[in-house]
Backbone:
């Protein structure tokens, strides 16, 4: 009845999440982009030289051709023709040679700049604080290094040099034509704006059409991706026919956008050719008129007029060709500007200083953690922690309990020094965390999170992340200590099994064990387990529980857990609500107290036993 | 440096196909592509016909220009030979040379105008042809893909499947417009060019085209050397991007273990590999391209010397229709020769793409309705597994020798560790896979005998992490039955205790969900999934651990939804929570695909085994219970 309210699409792609693909030219930005080539000054110098030579060479060939026809060929001078031909051959060969150098140097310069940019972006990212990663999508970061860096490459490698070659070529061709016949040249010049207008008009319309194509294509791929990921649902709910029809419509819609662009191109390119033919016709008529009838202006003998016509036939391509090319370069420059602006914005963003200037590398820490009236806000004026104070003595286990969003993970992130408290003090072994160099501190902290991230590589490589210099034997020892060596060895290639992208070849439980072993190998003084066992089923949990107990022994530990079964043995339970500690004590004390923890626990038992 | 106009977006690089049949010979593939192209013969012939006319027009335009030059030259120097008019249509004798020039120039322009219109028409016709093929093929591949069994999706990465519908399809249609049409046009146009040149002067043609084989060889070598190198470079670059994306996704690990120096070093290696290989490529590119551009210049040198001498000695070789036209022909000829390398590439690409597309089209669906399928309008709900064994392509069976019986309305709970085969067991009931041994019976008949769509419509499904589509809430609930009324949708939402939170959403049932339902909490997503499953009032309900990724506070809401959904239906539920397990009529404990324990909760608690061990993890200890004031009766459990 109300069916009309259901959109007839499988997916609903949200628009308006695109970054600008062009930006007006901005001299400061241009200078900065060109500044990227400064370390390659010599290459750049050579390039300018090559560009200057090429600007003359290309029209010169047309000129020599015309000169051959007008000179020795018309005169019937066979030896003279051969001489000019030899010159032409030499010119052509030298043009090819210069082109080789110009092309290679240009490409190398572009690659060098891009290489440099990628390294700088990556190194800069390593210094960016956690805050940055929370606010920035992965896709955005990747496009800084891919499409934006590529746009800059095109900017330094092509735009400047190609425009110079083409512009120089135009000037040279113009000078030659002007020398031979200024009347004819004025006609040529009059046609230039027409060509420019046509190509600008179409380029503008086309870039819009292409944007539509891209958008409709991203709808196609988004739907496809959902169809593949949701295939179980589709087949389970017998939706194949409905989906197929929708997909057909979507593809047809995409094809419609393509057709629109094709139609534009279908007018544009033939129009350019029509313009060329128009010019030929005009040249025939005008040239013919001057040779056969004679014009009152732009004197010279009929013979000279005929020669001028030849020159024009061969020179005009050198004059018109650059017009469209320079238009394209201009567009590339705008794209490069947009890319450069984003890349520089990233490189200029000053990483938040987490360490004070006089911070020192801590010696072996004992693991006393003290929160003193700590407050924190991710976004200004929306605090997620208020006045949190507690002390964890070395070797104690502190459990953090509370609803999603109550601030548990924020507390652990502060201990790991991913962020600095915005209020109050956080002390480790009595020293303010700002005075402890982050790198030295995190080495003594081990973290296992719910989303256990593994890097492409073997199980061994992933465990070794915990301690770079560890030998194979150390890794085995750590696994043995956790009593899970047999589990690793039962993998297809044991500890040398490749984990696949994001650890996809291992099960959740296996991945979690890798993370525990990694933390064990690091042998940290402070251990953070943030929902480390949440995504593991009960049967596997039973096994992990034992490993966990071994891991916790002798370290100051912070355990965030939804399943309250993990919390029972903690030395201190902190119950959080909306960023505040509302209850604290041991498990038994809190149950006896009969407050919120007791309620949570009752709920938990109810869920499992009622 | 120009790239030409790309009319279709083709962003993805072909991934690697997990199923690659090396046996499929190229000849068979080509034959099949021909057959596919044949069904588009009418529009294709139209396009070829148009291009043929265009070619003829372009050549006559060039010829007329040459003629115009000759007429002017004759007017300038009456000693030279008379211009030769096409088809012997000479202008009337009283016309002045200038009048002839006017007419010739007018003809050049007229031909150009006709060319403009035909060119436009031909380009659009070609685009329509190309798009028709793409739409047909994409729809076919997508439709087929949707019906493939899960084994296909298990064996192929999702990126690879997506590429088959996008870029591989592009590659296949390229066989029609980039190979078939192009080859025909190339043959025709080369024939015309050479014919025209030969008609001007035989030996001049031979000498001017002497470098052609070399040009051919060079362009061919170029694509052979440089294309694979670029492919390698893209792979190297993908590695570098993977380093970056892992670095960002694993930023907690990188920072948590202070791995920044190692990460920078890892990235530097990947980045340098890209640059060093690029340098190799640059040398080749910058050698081949100028060389390929140089060869046609040699032709011009030959024309200058040989043609120049011809002009001096042979009055029949005129400056316009001879020399000028020849120069123009040579230029277009070398462009055409260059396109051979492009065509060769298209052949390669379309064959690779075709292989991957045909793999999908040919893949047996594995699971299909039998020829004389039994209809199953409404099942009673009796489910029976008889000695069922099933294994994925590799390795040990995931489920072996399983026997389960469920009477209509009963609840069977399945418990087991990760990888014990719980989800696999459930997938056998709606025939996502067929067992290799044993049978699955519904209402006493083998499921393989039923109509597949009927069978699945009788089964409601909720998965561990329910996949929601980025569409409205209503559309997601009505996913299995798009024609459902709003009343039906709301009733289902009520059963799944989802109505309340849906009404609190900004647009209620018309709220559009983010990708994968990202704007809902896990508990809300699962309740929508339950509503989706009960919309069709299925007799059988399969719940694959819907609370796995949910925190305990929300869990209760889902448990309530599950309970009301289960009532009156035969339910198979994978569960770990005692509350669910206790309610089941039968609990089955799986270990490595085998049933190790069966019974009710109470029976299993009395037996020593895995069940009691796992259950005890979830029960409160006596001390806690005492503190909470819960009455205990000795055994762990019981409230």
Residues:
């Amino acid at each position: 009845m109300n069916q009309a309210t259901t959109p007839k699409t499988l997916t609903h792609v949200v628009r308006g999440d695109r970054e600008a693909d062009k930006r007006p030219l901005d001299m400061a930005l241009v200078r900065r982009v060109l500044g990227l080539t400064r370390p390659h000054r010599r290459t750049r110098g050579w390039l300018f030289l090559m560009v200057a030579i090429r600007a003359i060479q290309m029209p010169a060939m047309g000129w020599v051709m015309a000169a051959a026809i007008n000179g020795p060929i018309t005169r019937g001078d066979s030896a003279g023709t051969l001489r000019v031909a030899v010159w032409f051959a030499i010119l052509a060969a030298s043009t090819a040679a210069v082109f080789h150098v110009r092309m290679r140097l240009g490409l190398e310069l572009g690659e060098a700049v891009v290489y440099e940019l990628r390294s700088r972006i990556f190194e800069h990212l390593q210094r960016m604080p956690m805050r940055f990663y929370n606010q920035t999508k992965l896709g955005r970061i990747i496009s800084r290094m891919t499409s934006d860096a590529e746009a800059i490459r095109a900017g330094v490698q092509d735009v400047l040099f190609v425009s110079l070659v083409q512009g120089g070529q135009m000037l040279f061709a113009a000078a030659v034509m002007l020398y031979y016949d200024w009347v004819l040249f004025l006609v040529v010049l009059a046609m230039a704006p027409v060509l420019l207008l046509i190509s600008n008009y179409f380029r503008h319309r086309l870039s819009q059409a292409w944007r539509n194509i891209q958008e409709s294509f991203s709808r196609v791929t988004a739907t496809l991706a959902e169809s593949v990921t949701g295939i179980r649902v589709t087949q389970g709910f017998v939706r194949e026919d409905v989906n197929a029809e929708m997909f057909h419509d979507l593809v047809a819609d995409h094809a419609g956008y393509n057709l629109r662009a094709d139609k534009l191109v279908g007018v544009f390119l033939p129009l350019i050719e029509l313009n060329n033919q128009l010019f030929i016709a005009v040249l025939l008529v005008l040239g013919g008129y001057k040779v056969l009838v004679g014009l009152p202006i732009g004197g010279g003998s009929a013979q000279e007029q005929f020669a001028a016509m030849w020159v024009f036939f061969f020179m005009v391509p050198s004059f018109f060709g650059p017009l469209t090319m320079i238009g394209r370069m201009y567009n590339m420059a705008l794209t490069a500007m947009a890319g450069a602006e984003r890349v520089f914005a990233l490189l200029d963003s000053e990483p938040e200083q987490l360490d004070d200037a006089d911070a020192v590398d801590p010696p072996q820490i004992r693991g006393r953690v003290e929160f003193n009236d700590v407050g924190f806000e991710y976004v200004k004026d929306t605090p997620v922690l208020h006045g949190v104070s507690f002390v964890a003595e070395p070797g104690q286990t502190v459990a953090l309990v509370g609803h999603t969003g109550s601030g548990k993970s924020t507390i652990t992130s502060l201990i790991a020094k991913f962020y600095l408290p915005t209020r109050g003090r956080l002390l480790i072994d009595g020293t303010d965390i700002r005075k402890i160099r982050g790198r030295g501190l995190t080495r003594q902290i081990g973290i296992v999170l719910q989303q256990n991230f593994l890097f492409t590589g073997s199980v061994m490589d992933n465990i070794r992340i915990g301690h770079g210099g560890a030998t194979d034997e150390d890794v085995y020892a750590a696994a043995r200590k956790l009593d899970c060596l047999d589990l690793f060895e039962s993998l297809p290639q044991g500890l040398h099994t490749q984990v696949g992208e994001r650890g996809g070849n291992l099960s959740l439980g296996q991945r979690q064990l890798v993370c525990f072993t990694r933390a064990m190998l690091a042998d940290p003084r402070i251990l953070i387990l943030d929902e480390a066992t949440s995504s593991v089923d009960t049967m596997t949990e039973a096994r992990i529980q034992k490993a966990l107990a071994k891991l916790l022994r002798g370290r100051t530990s912070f355990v965030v857990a939804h399943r309250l079964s993990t919390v029972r043995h903690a030395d201190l339970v902190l119950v959080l609500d909306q960023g505040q500690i509302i209850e604290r004590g041991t498990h038994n004390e809190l149950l006896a107290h009969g407050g919120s923890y007791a309620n949570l626990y009752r709920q938990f038992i109810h869920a499992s036993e009622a | 440096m120009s790239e030409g106009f790309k009319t279709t977006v083709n962003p993805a690089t072909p991934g690697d196909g997990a199923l690659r049949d090396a046996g499929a010979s190229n000849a068979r593939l080509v034959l099949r592509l021909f057959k596919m192209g044949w069904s588009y013969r009418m529009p294709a012939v139209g396009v070829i016909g148009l291009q043929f006319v265009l070619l003829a027009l372009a050549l006559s335009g060039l010829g007329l220009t040459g003629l115009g030059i000759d007429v002017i030259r004759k007017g300038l120097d009456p000693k030279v030979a008379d211009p030769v008019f096409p088809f012997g249509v000479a202008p009337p004798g009283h016309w002045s040379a200038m009048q002839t020039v006017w007419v010739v120039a007018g003809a050049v322009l007229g031909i150009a105008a006709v060319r403009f219109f035909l060119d436009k028409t031909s380009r659009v016709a070609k685009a329509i042809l190309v798009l028709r093929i793409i739409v047909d093929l994409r729809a076919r591949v997508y439709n087929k893909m949707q019906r493939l069994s899960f084994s296909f999706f298990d064996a192929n990465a999702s990126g690879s499947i997506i590429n088959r519908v996008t870029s591989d399809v592009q590659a296949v249609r390229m066989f029609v417009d980039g190979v078939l049409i192009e080859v025909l046009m190339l043959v025709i146009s080369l024939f015309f060019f050479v014919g025209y040149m030969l008609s001007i002067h035989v030996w001049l043609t031979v000498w001017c085209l002497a470098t052609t084989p070399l040009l051919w060889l060079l362009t061919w070598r170029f694509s052979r050397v440089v294309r694979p190198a670029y492919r390698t470079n893209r792979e190297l670059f993908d590695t570098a991007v993977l380093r970056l994306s892992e670095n960002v996704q694993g930023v907690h690990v990188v920072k948590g273990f202070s791995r920044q120096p190692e990460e920078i070093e890892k990235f530097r290696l990947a980045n340098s590999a890209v640059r060093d290989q690029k340098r190799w490529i640059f040398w080749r590119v910058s050698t081949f391209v100028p060389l390929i551009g140089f060869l046609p210049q040699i032709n011009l040198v030959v024309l200058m010397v040989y043609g120049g001498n011809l002009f001096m000695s042979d009055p029949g070789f005129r400056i316009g229709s001879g020399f000028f036209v020849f120069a123009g022909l040579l230029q277009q000829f070398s462009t055409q020769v260059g396109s051979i390398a492009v065509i060769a590439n298209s052949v390669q690409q379309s064959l690779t793409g075709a292989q991957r597309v045909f793999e999908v089209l040919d893949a047996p669906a594995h699971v299909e309705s039998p020829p004389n399928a039994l209809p199953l309008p409404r099942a009673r709900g009796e489910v029976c597994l008889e000695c069922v064994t099933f294994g994925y392509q590799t390795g040990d069976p995931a489920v072996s020798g399983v026997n389960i019986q469920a009477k209509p309305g009963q609840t069977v709970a399945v418990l087991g560790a990760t990888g014990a085969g719980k989800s696999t067991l459930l997938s056998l009931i709606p025939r996502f896979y067929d067992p290799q041994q044993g049978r699955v019976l519904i209402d006493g008949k083998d499921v393989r005998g039923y109509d597949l769509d009927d069978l699945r419509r009788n089964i409601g499904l909720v998965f561990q992490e329910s996949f929601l589509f980025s569409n409205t809430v209503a559309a997601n609930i009505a996913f299995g039955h798009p024609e459902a009324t709003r009343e039906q949708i709301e009733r289902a939402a009520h059963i799944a205790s989802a109505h309340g939170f849906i009404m609190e959403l900004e647009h209620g049932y018309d709220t559009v969900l983010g990708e994968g339902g990202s704007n809902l909490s896990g508990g809300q997503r699962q309740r929508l999934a339950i509503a989706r499953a009960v919309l069709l009032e299925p007799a059988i309900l399969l719940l694959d651990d819907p609370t796995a990724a949910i925190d305990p506070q929300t869990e209760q809401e889902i448990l309530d939804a599950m309970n009301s959904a289960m009532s009156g239906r035969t339910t198979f539920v994978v569960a770990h929570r005692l509350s669910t397990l206790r309610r089941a009529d039968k609990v089955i404990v799986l270990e490595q695909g085998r049933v190790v324990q069966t019974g009710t909760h109470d029976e299993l608690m009395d037996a020593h085994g895995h069940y009691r061990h796992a259950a005890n993890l979830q029960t409160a200890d006596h001390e806690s219970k005492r503190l909470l004031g819960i009455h205990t009766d000795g055994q762990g459990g019981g409230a």
Notes: Residues 454-523 of chain A form a domain with the Rossmann fold fold (CATH 3.40.50.300). The longest strand of chain A covers residues 369-379. Residues 280 and 313 of chain A are 8 Å apart (CA to CA). Residues 240-293 of chain A form the longest helix (54 residues).
